[in-house]
Structures are given as C-alpha cells and as structure tokens.
C-alpha cells in the first residue's frame, strides 16, 4: 500500500496501519487472477442508496475532472445527471483523484466497480419473493452479466448480525470497521498531526484548567438498552462511582439496577451535537465509551468524540490490543487492566481524579496530535484507499461466504 494522502494526513498512525495491512494472515478469499490495463479514470456506480439516500453520486464533477475521461458518451451522461451544485470534494486530498461516482445504473455494465450498502441491499433482497433463490434475486436486481474484472464493493460499518442472504453476491471488496477489509482506515475516527503544537506552558495551563473544573464523575450517553453486558458492567461500577447518565435507557436503568443512589439522570432529550451535550461534556473527567457489540476493531465515534472533548474514555470491549493499534498511547482506561474488577477500577479512577500528575499523562498526546471523526473527513480517507486499489488492481478475489467473514469477527 502506498502513501495515499497528502503529507499533512500522512501520520504515524497511518504508517502503523499500513504495516498492519502488509502483515495480515491469508484472508478467507478465493478467486481467479487476471491482468488489467491502467486507465485514465475509474467509474464507481452507487448501486444501492446509502441509508436510503444517494451519497457521493449527487456531487458535481468538475469540467477539469471530466476531461480525464476519454469516453464522450460517458461524459455526457455524467454531465446530464448532475443536479447538485455541491463540489466533488471526496477525493480532493487523495493521491489518486481519477475515480468518479454515478447513480446511473444504466452505466453499471460499463463501470469499474459497483458499490452496495449492506442495510439498503439487504432490505431490497428480503423484499424479493423467493429471495433465497440466487438466480431469482440476481435476475431481479441486475439486467446484465457480471464482468470478471468488475469490482463489487460492500459497505458495512455496523456490527449487527450479518445475514446470509448476501453470500451469493460474492463481493470482491469490503468497506468496514474491520481492519482486514480492503478499506477501513479511520472508519469512525483517527489521530492526525495537530495544526499547531502546544508549548509546555500552554499545555500545563490547559491540563490544570481541565483538572480543576471537571468533577470525579463518569458520564454516559446511552440509548441502546439491548446491550445487556455493558449495562451489567455499569451497574457494578455504579456501586463505587458517581455516574451521570443521559439517553433513552434512563427508564430501563431506574427500573432494573438494584442501587441507583450514585447515579444522576440527565435529560433524555439531550441530543448528540446539541449545546446540551457539549455543556454536559465539560463537567466530567471520565466517559463510558462502551460499545454495544464486541467485534474485532469495532471502536466507534463515541470513543473518538470523548477524546476530542477532553474526557478520559473508559472501555471494556473489544480487547485492548485493538485500542492499542489505533488510539493515542495513555489516552484511555481499559477495564481489562483491572481484571474486570469494578472496585479496583473505581480506586484507580479516584486516584486519577485527585492526582494532577497522573491525570496529565492522559493528555500528553494532545501536544502533537488531534482527533478527526467528522463523517465527511473520515469517509474521504477510506475512498482514497478504494481509488488507490482500483488504480493498482492486478488480480481479483472474492469473499466466499461474506456472512461468515463478518460474523466470525464478533463475540455474541
């Protein structure tokens, strides 16, 4: 894998990610080899919507970019379908910028790649009568024969149980949170160099300010009450720690936890991205960044956002090795370091909350780095990977049973 990005994005974290990619064990994929000529452009068709909406194909492709395409009929099609005035920004920071998106399915047989979104595709497949019949499903969804050189890409960032209804599609690549996917860098967030390094004096002031005004309290925003394992962990910790909880699970917790004397319940309507949330994030030293699924590499934006808002995240799944691979060193607390003992963890939280020197160590990384997790930024990084792979493709592989591949990464 080459350096995909401009120098300001090429961070230490990406170098570690690249090294990990190059040393992966053999993937569970099989397929024929073939040679493919280098092209001036690569066309990707959004064959399904993304959460019910068109995604990148609604963006306007500039005349300058269209000039790289030699097929005049294709240029005319791409011009005519663009109704949005939004700039085509997706690949503007990538080394390879010659990949284009279209919503026009009539171009599918001529495209280099088809992109499918798991949730939207699964809904389409299950709506077809006799959807377990491979031939029937494919005849309903496709009016062309699949070209062996065409790449079929499945996008799935969710860690829910994966249905076997999509196994027959024999996808070539995946975009997902799993680092073994063809595109996975910075799925929900990552570390990159800060625009301005913080000097020692300013850093000391910053840490002292955070330490002084934040309370020894754990904050938690939670709306998925079905993830019972993390609820049990929080219930045990609530016997020793002050916890402030927001979200739709307040009612469940009030009725199911044996002791809620140390729990403060906030406004259930305190929404993500609201002033209420931002103000709440300013008051606590710690945050439960507990994932609702225990899957390889499944670390979502709740972890990255807590770091960005100067909270110390407490995590317990997935295993610590996955956090070590992507997170700033000494920036979080993993429950495994305390043998999953609530009392031991509570004692350590009290120590951190009272000792400025220990507290300070959790923020050393902020001298040099910053967190990025905004969707329009992190999506760009993964599609840099996709475009790079299309430009350098010299063989074809496919996932034999993609449901097994996804489900085997999770412990349920």
From TrEMBL:
Q: Name one GO cellular component term.
A: Golgi cisterna membrane
Q: Which residues form the Fucosyltransferase C-terminal domain?
A: 212-405
User: Per UniProt, which keywords does this protein have?
Assistant: Glycoprotein, Glycosyltransferase, Golgi apparatus, Membrane, Signal-anchor, Transferase, Transmembrane, Transmembrane helix
MF-aspect GO terms: alpha-(1->3)-fucosyltransferase activity
Its Enzyme Commission number(s) read 2.4.1.-
Any signal peptide, and if so, which residues?
Answer: none
Location of this chain's protein in the cell? Golgi apparatus, Golgi stack membrane; Membrane
Q: Name one Pfam family in it.
A: Glyco_transf_10
> Which positions fall inside the Fucosyltransferase N-terminal domain?
88-183
Q: Which SUPFAM superfamilies match?
A: UDP-Glycosyltransferase/glycogen phosphorylase
Q: How does it sit in the membrane?
A: Single-pass type II membrane protein; Single-pass membrane protein
| Homology family | Belongs to the glycosyltransferase 10 family.
Which PANTHER family does this UniProt record tie to the protein?
A: ALPHA- 1,3 -FUCOSYLTRANSFERASE (PTHR11929), ATP-DEPENDENT DNA HELICASE-RELATED (PTHR11929:SF226)
**Mind telling me what this protein is named?**
Fucosyltransferase
Give the source species.
Answer: Brachionus plicatilis (Marine rotifer)
């Amino acid at each position: 894998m080459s350096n995909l990005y401009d120098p300001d994005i090429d961070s230490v974290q990406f170098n570690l990610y690249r090294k990990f990619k190059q040393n992966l064990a053999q993937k569970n994929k099989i397929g024929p080899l073939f040679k493919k000529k280098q092209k001036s452009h690569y066309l990707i068709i959004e064959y399904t919507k993304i959460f019910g909406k068109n995604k990148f194909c609604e963006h306007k492709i500039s005349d300058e970019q269209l000039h790289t395409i030699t097929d005049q009929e294709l240029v005319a099609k791409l011009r005519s379908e663009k109704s949005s005035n939004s700039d085509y920004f997706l690949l503007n920071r990538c080394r390879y910028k010659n990949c284009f998106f279209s919503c026009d399915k009539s171009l599918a047989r001529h495209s280099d790649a088809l992109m499918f979104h798991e949730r939207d595709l699964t809904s389409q497949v299950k709506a077809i009568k006799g959807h377990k019949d491979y031939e029937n499903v494919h005849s309903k969804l496709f009016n062309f024969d699949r070209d062996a050189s065409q790449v079929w890409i499945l996008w799935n960032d969710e860690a829910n149980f994966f249905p076997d209804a999509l196994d027959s599609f024999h996808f070539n690549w995946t975009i997902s949170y799993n680092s073994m996917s063809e595109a996975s860098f910075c799925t929900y967030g990552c570390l990159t160099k800060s625009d301005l390094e913080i000097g020692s004096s300013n850093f000391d002031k910053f840490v002292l300010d955070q330490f002084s005004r934040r309370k020894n309290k754990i904050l938690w925003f939670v709306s998925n009450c079905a993830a019972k394992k993390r609820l049990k962990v929080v219930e045990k910790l609530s016997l020793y720690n002050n916890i402030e909880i927001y979200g739709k699970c307040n009612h469940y917790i009030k009725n199911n936890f044996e002791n809620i004397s140390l729990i403060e319940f906030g406004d259930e309507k305190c929404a993500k991205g609201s002033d209420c949330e931002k103000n709440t994030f300013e008051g606590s030293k710690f945050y439960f960044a507990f994932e609702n699924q225990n899957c390889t590499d499944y670390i979502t934006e709740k972890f990255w956002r807590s770091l960005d808002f100067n909270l110390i995240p407490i995590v317990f799944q997935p295993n610590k090795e996955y956090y070590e691979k992507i997170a700033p060193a000494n920036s979080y607390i993993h429950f495994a370091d305390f043998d999953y003992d609530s009392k031991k963890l509570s004692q350590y939280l009290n120590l951190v909350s009272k000792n400025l020197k220990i507290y300070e160590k959790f923020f050393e990384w902020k001298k040099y780095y910053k967190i990025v997790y905004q969707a329009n930024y992190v999506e760009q990084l993964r599609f840099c990977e996709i475009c790079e792979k299309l430009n350098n493709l010299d063989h074809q592989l496919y996932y034999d049973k993609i449901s097994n591949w996804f489900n085997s990464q999770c412990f349920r």
